[in-house]
């Protein structure tokens, strides 16, 4: 019987259904590094989470591991080269979470530009208020420019939403992307354009990060990038925390170099730079980009089906690389 190690809390009914006939270990709690190191030894498959440290040292302990079914779009926690060297197939869950994650990114953009978190905290604190023409003014999205770093599935879904709200979109990517679906969303916005990062930072009213975390994109938003942004611009990050230098972000916010930030991800999750908690122009969410029930069900199904395919001697459905 194949042994599947589920490394973190999971929708276990779906795992059991998709991997019927296998022995399933875990699925109710996040395994520590020590537990993972112990469990990986005898595992035929891992159903993994984005915070598992699947580095070369841990992978070296596997004796019969055939497949890692990562239940996430990102896989920066996995040493893919080390896995490949050991003949382990790595899979992820693209194509099922991008719309949901773009909803969240868009929500964060609205929250931070229209000061929704701050306004809600104000009301809940029972502060006196009445309608006032000059109260809680924020930035409207109509006519503003959204700069998308990384026009993959999630970036493109974010761009379509932005176009529907009347935003012009520019993006960075290694190559020109097909932007026809974005432009078709709203003929009155400017045609979507690929630009260099410098231009994107200088001209955008909102910069939204949607690239994977790699050695090239680690701290792609650093002190220099933040200084290049307009002082009236906002940063949104729903990708990976380490794409942004969080200490530099704190400094930039403290010095008024940018207007605010909406964050769902952090460099050292779940720890957050302490000063961010006290900044009213910052929205902080607990990495819930894809946390819609049906989306999480589809992610679990896909991760489990990838495992079943590889263990059954077939090609993975959505392998990395
Ligand atoms: C979430 O961050 C994911 O990569 O799926």
UniProtKB/TrEMBL annotation:
The record places domain D-isomer specific 2-hydroxyacid dehydrogenase NAD-binding at: 106-289
Give the D-isomer specific 2-hydroxyacid dehydrogenase catalytic domain ranges.
Answer: 30-320
Q: Where does this protein have coiled-coil stretches? A: none
Keyword annotations of the record: NAD, Oxidoreductase
List GO molecular-function terms, semicolon-separated: glyoxylate reductase (NADPH) activity; hydroxypyruvate reductase [NAD(P)H] activity; NAD binding
Q: What is this protein called?
A: 4-phosphoerythronate dehydrogenase
The keyword NAD is annotated on this UniProt entry: yes
Give one Pfam hit by family name. 2-Hacid_dh
Similarity remark:
Belongs to the D-isomer specific 2-hydroxyacid dehydrogenase family.
- Among the entry's GO cellular component annotations, what is one? cytosol
What is the native source organism of this protein?
A: Cutibacterium granulosum DSM 20700
């Amino acid at each position: 019987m194949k042994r599947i190690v589920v490394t973190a809390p999971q929708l276990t009914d779906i795992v059991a259904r998709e991997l019927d006939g296998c022995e399933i270990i875990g699925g109710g709690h996040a395994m520590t590094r020590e537990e993972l190191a112990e469990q990986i030894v005898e595992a035929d498959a891992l159903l993994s989470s984005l915070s598992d440290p699947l580095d070369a040292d841990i992978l070296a302990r596997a004796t019969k591991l055939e497949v890692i079914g990562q239940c996430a779009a990102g896989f920066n926690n996995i040493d893919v080269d080390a896995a490949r060297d050991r003949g382990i197939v790595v899979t992820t869950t693209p194509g099922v979470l991008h719309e949901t994650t773009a909803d969240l990114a868009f929500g964060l953009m609205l929250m931070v530009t229209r000061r929704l978190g701050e306004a809600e905290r104000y009301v809940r604190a029972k502060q006196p208020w009445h309608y006032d023409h000059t109260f809680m003014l924020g930035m409207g999205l109509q006519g503003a420019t959204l700069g998308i770093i990384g026009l993959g599935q999630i970036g493109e879904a974010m761009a379509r939403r932005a176009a529907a709200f009347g935003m012009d979109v520019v993006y960075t990517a290694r190559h020109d992307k097909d932007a026809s679906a974005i432009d078709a969303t709203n003929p009155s916005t400017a045609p979507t354009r690929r630009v260099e990062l410098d231009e994107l930072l200088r001209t955008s009213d909102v910069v939204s990060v949607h690239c994977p975390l790699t050695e090239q994109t680690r701290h792609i938003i650093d002190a220099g990038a933040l200084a290049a942004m307009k002082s009236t611009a906002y940063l949104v990050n729903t990708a990976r925390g380490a794409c942004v230098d969080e200490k530099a972000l704190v400094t930039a916010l403290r010095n008024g170099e940018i207007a605010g930030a909406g964050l769902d991800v952090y460099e050292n999750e779940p720890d957050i730079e302490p000063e961010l908690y006290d900044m009213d122009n910052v929205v902080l969410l607990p990495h819930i980009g894809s946390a819609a029930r049906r989306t999480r069900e589809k992610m679990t199904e896909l991760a489990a089906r990838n495992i079943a395919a590889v263990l059954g001697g077939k090609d993975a459905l959505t392998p990395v690389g």
